[in-house]
Design brief:
Length: 268
């Protein structure tokens, strides 16, 4: 079972945008994917329809031990399902973080999901509170979006400090890379921040695709859809996530498809 946690020490880096659009890209590539929102603010639901935002979800699964099938929302795409955050009162947020911190509840979720899905993707809150640490404990791999701006690029080392601490506690979660987001190549500060990441970390650690700042993301958010479903002919920026999914397949060794997987003849 492959489990990808998407984490960042800083908010506003496009973490939920990456989680949602990457989940869609994996599903379209044939991988049965479950996107799980672990953020008490319900970022995934807020990015989609009111039905998702108001539905039962992870909170009910954890608190009442409801079967996963009762709280997962099927989508119109056969290979993609969503587990929203569910209902959490503001005063209950600290308790929710505490309930997830040891990774047991999310580990149970992963075990249950293994029968139906190839891949689980955790969208996490910013920082390293209980929900994020719990997701890292239950994950096999971690992806870190890095906003192409100075403060965000300087905070990246915190991710590796947390991963080192987890390794010391016998939690083996593998980093699959840093993903530059909101990149503006024509803006000096954005380009310099990207160059700091490119030059400050091993080449193999920085993913080749980068997510640009693009008005299509705002339009998709307003419509309550992933950018790849914004129109029948998706905007060019949607292709970034197809490239990202293809690269991550290799990095996570997510390559065991059906025996007949191979070249498809264009002409009989």
């Amino acid at each position: 079972m492959t489990v990808l946690a998407i984490v960042s020490p800083k908010g506003g880096c496009g973490k939920t945008t990456v989680a949602l659009n990457l989940s869609l890209a994996f599903a379209r590539r044939g991988w049965s994917t479950l996107l799980v929102d672990t953020d008490p603010q319900g970022a995934v639901g807020l990015s989609l329809t009111r039905r998702v935002a108001d539905a039962r979800g992870l909170a009910e699964y954890v608190a009442h031990r409801r079967p996963l099938g009762e709280v997962v929302i099927a989508t119109r795409l056969e290979n993609l399902a969503i587990l929203p955050i569910g209902h959490i009162a503001i005063q209950d947020t600290p308790g929710f973080h505490a309930a997830l911190a040891d990774g047991a509840a999310l580990g149970r979720l992963v075990e249950e999901a293994a029968a139906a899905y190839h891949l689980v993707i955790f969208d996490t809150p910013s920082g390293f509170g209980g929900a994020t640490v719990g997701a890292l404990r239950a994950a096999t791999h971690v992806l870190c979006p890095v906003q192409a701006e100075p403060l965000a690029s300087r905070s990246v080392t915190q991710v590796f400090e947390v991963l080192a601490w987890l390794r010391d506690n016998e939690v083996a979660v593998e980093p699959v890379g840093l993903l530059l987001t909101m990149l503006q190549l024509r803006e000096k500060d954005s380009l310099e921040a990207a160059e700091t990441v490119w030059g400050g970390f091993p080449e193999e650690l920085v993913l080749e695709p980068a997510v640009p700042r693009d008005p299509a993301f705002l339009a998709a958010s307003s419509a309550g859809v992933p950018v790849g479903l914004l129109s029948r002919r998706p905007p060019p920026v949607a292709m970034v996530f197809d490239k990202l999914a293809a690269e991550l397949e290799q990095r996570m060794r997510l390559t065991e498809k059906e025996p007949d997987d191979g070249p498809v003849a264009l002409v009989d």
